Amino acid sequence: MPRCNHCKTKFEAYEFNGKYCQALDCKVAKGLFLLSKIKDKKSKQRIKDIQGINESKKQAKTVNDKEQLQKEINKLARKIDERFYTTCIDCDRIIIDTVSHGAHRFNVGGHENIRFNLHNVHASTSYCNMYNTEHKVGYDKKLVERYNQEYYDLVHGLDLKYKSINLLSTEITKALKIARKLNRDFNKTVLTDSISARTLFNKLIGIYK
User: What is the pLDDT of residue 155?
Assistant: First the structure.
């Protein structure tokens, strides 16, 4: 015969795996025990829910920081090219600050690993970046004409050089703060040419060392 968990006396089982006898006090004790289990379960579920909400917020912040970092990188690329060049990387038309874009040679979607690399971002007209079907052809041609074949090879080798960057959320946040400061202080920064400027800023931002 089982022994009651509350009064400790033996009793004849009246339910499968029963732990309490049918004395009134023992029934009350059983009820309180079951109630505490329900509360514990709800408490654990609430903790899980809160953790899930916090994780979702963290992920949302990381996504937002990535988007903001991309904007700052694009802005830096435009500022560099506007200092040393005034034409689009695709079509050679004059670019205007308010409508110029930071155009990626290798798209963000398929090349997450080099989306923040300034050598992969050059200033273009908004039209070329968004609508020109010959965008990549003009881009490659200008990389050679504006710079040289060696630089063209450097840009086209970024994917192999940086196969994966696996940034932590804290690293993205840190890089964003640095990029914002570089943009704020851009006009005070002494730069000699477009290529070395991109290399310098990449190093300072710290993603591509």
Answer: 97
